[in-house]
Amino acid sequence: MRVVTLGTSAGRPTAQRSASAVALEYEGDVILFDCGEGTQAQLARSPLRWGNINAIFIGHLHGDHVNGLPGILGTFSLTDRTMPLKVFGPPGIKRYLEILQEIKTVWINFPVEIIEIRKSGTLLDEKKYQVETARLDHVIECWGYVFREKPRPGHFDEAKAEALKIPHGPLRSRLVQGQSITLENGQVIAPQEIVGPPRPGRSVAYCLDTCPCENAIFLARGTDLLIHESTFDDSLREEMKKWGHSTSGQAAETALKAKSRRLILTHISPRYAEPELLLKEAKGIFPEAEMAWDLNEFIVESAE
Amino acid sequence: MRVVTLGTSAGRPTAQRSASAVALEYEGDVILFDCGEGTQAQLARSPLRWGNINAIFIGHLHGDHVNGLPGILGTFSLTDRTMPLKVFGPPGIKRYLEILQEIKTVWINFPVEIIEIRKSGTLLDEKKYQVETARLDHVIECWGYVFREKPRPGHFDEAKAEALKIPHGPLRSRLVQGQSITLENGQVIAPQEIVGPPRPGRSVAYCLDTCPCENAIFLARGTDLLIHESTFDDSLREEMKKWGHSTSGQAAETALKAKSRRLILTHISPRYAEPELLLKEAKGIFPEAEMAWDLNEFIVESAE
């Protein structure tokens, strides 16, 4: 499970940073958060198998978060993709893609389901993970996301299983699935004798663009990784409510309040060619902060 | 006067080629033909002073020719541009930009005039140059363009002017402007005694996307530089009428029929990672053919 920061600039691409987009790869699936201009070119430069993108989550409709979406849909069509794709975003995204299709800017010839977000809650419920959303606090309607891996089976006590002479195969699988088994000698074994308690799943929150708000803390609560916007430095704290953005220090405060394990700063204003200041401010509040650059890779590990 | 091929790929960007866009720089003005995804990033990598873009000509509304337009308008707004901009394109482009503004994908805070093309003819008439359009033959409505520098003053015969003792300053200027002058000694001098016949202006045609057609030849007639799509190789000639594209050989035939002086092949299908074949086919018909790569620079010179 890894996160690749494809584009890390705020407002517009620069020579160093492409517009906003983050990919999360989980057991072969690839999920995209935002899709700024240049995202498909960044995907081509990344190690990701981006034909495997199964869902795209657009936080809000500002161009620096969505201008790459028409192109990626067109490229999937040109390259004869057949795998279905889900696109989530705020109300307006359906009309946006419909009109672009009408005027032939976008050509779609594979199954795309466009889902407009109407309320907080679970958007995507796959076998091994879920993606939830909550409304952020930006100048236009904007949604944040959290990816939650479902609890994983507990640790299997191999030594004890050998001692009890439990044969490899279906009986062991049933224990892992939480069922009791009966051995050939008539002995009944309960799953908890061999299998530890379920391990919590890993989680990644995505909070762009927003000023500090309760829902960002809610989404980030206890996550293994929080990807948070950090558009400006702390000298501009007073402006953030008005501008709908966060400083690096405010991003760090959200991570701290949410008890996230790790914070990635992204959506960096082009005014900071060398954003050491932003990282320093964040680390002063939340030491596990890191600065994202384009095409950085972050492996997501759980606490245990 | 130079042309920079910003993006040279057909259909979608690749790791080597960005989507379609060509810049023409003329005495400080910059004109853009098409604006595919990634154009602003390519401009940032180019030597052009792209804040000086005064007109953008979109040939047709397929995404690989227009997906970069919202981003560039947004960036001009973010960077406090005040200089007016004209955007020309086929009908639909107004609605496209209006809707993107409605849903806040594009934010425009400087004067942008959007002009939908309804017929062939002159679109832009500046002091020193014009841009004309004619309809091409593609699968959707598509317009080609020709940039024509206005005739330049003829050669000024410095030696003869000295011999006749014509003083530097206003008198010489009036000769260049085509007026007769009277010297202090009463001698009348006609402009044609000192100034040669007006030299023809330089010209550049832009024909993307199109299958071979009379209007492409019309636009390219006698140009110093023809930028023509060359999506496929000559083995696919039979398909071009149906696909609305040209092979490299067909692009060369258009250059030959139009008596262009030079041909640049662009809009290369991603299937040709090494497009030597396309260049070879074109050169076999029109030796002054060249292959465009991203960020190539072509100086435009006149025949004389």
Shape of chain A: globular
Strand content of chain A: 25-35%
* Count of the domains of chain A: 2
The structural class of chain A is alpha/beta
Order of helices and strands of chain A: EEEHEHHEHEEEEHHEEHEHEHHEHEE
CATH architecture field of the largest domain in chain A:
4-Layer Sandwich
Chain pair forming the biggest interface: A-B, 37 and 37 residues
CATH class of the largest domain in chain A: Alpha Beta
Mean pLDDT of chain A: 96
Q: Could you name the ranges of chain A where pLDDT drops below 50 across 5 or more consecutive residues?
A: none
Name of the CATH superfamily of the largest domain in chain A: Ribonuclease Z/Hydroxyacylglutathione hydrolase-like
Number of strands of chain A: 16
Strand order, sheet with most strands of chain A:
6-5-4-3-2-1-16
Rounded to the nearest angstrom, the radius of gyration of chain A is 22 Å
Number of helices of chain A: 11
End-to-end distance of chain A, in Å? 15 Å
* Biggest sheet features of chain A: 7 strands, mixed
Structural key phrases:
homodimer; 304 residues; seven-stranded mixed sheet
